[in-house]
Amino acid sequence: MKNLTALIVDDYEPALKMLENDLKINHPEISNISKAKSVVEASKLLRQKEPDILLLDVMLGDGTGFDILEIHPELCSKIIFVTASDEFAIKAFKFAAIDYILKPYSLDSLCGAIERAKSQISPNKEQLSVLKNSIFYPDQRPKKISLNSSNKIIVVNLDDIMHCKSDNNYTEFYLVDGQKILVGKTLKYFSDILKEYHFLRVHQSHLINIQFIKEFIKSDGGYIILQNKQTIPVSVRKKNEVIEIIKNI
Description:
The N and C termini lie far apart (58 Å). The chain is an alpha/beta fold. The chain is built from eight helices and 17 strands. It folds into two domains: 133 residues, Rossmann fold (3-Layer(aba) Sandwich); 93 residues, CATH 2.40.50.1020.
């Protein structure tokens, strides 16, 4: 097994020491662990050597974790953000498809994040931009979302997503340009994070962007026709909600 290196960045000394100890005890493959408590200190260490894994707190005393990434735009380390348990922060990480662990973290969540980091693709600038905007502007409707397909991360505009279809534990995204993207998350996962942004789960297997509704047909059990003429079934319990939405479009 290849020996790995890690850099932990956190401005709270007890958290820094606890994370270091947990890595040493549970991840012997990480043979070299460095620590930093600020943007300046972390940047100095990164100029000397790039770690395999960067565990990065979002909020630091002299700035943010994003400041470090902007200072080192060519950084290839696998990044795991460490964040306080916050509803908006969690949603932001889901939108960006970037790994994170919550404070206070469990050993299982830490181990899972480390294992995923070994094989994940380092987040690109567009992903980080999605994350930064979602965290620092939680009251604004996100413009983009990162979709983690089997071989790459694709950042798409929310307004370009027409609808999503469940495929067991996967979700298939249908875009306005005809592109289809299969993502390894359930439809419920995306329904939960998109429902505030004009997306409606009209059926157990279908989530739609309501701006693309053309009409609702009441016959044959009830179904929606999208602007691209695709038909989407509507469950009985969602019919009244769909009718009310159409009245207000």
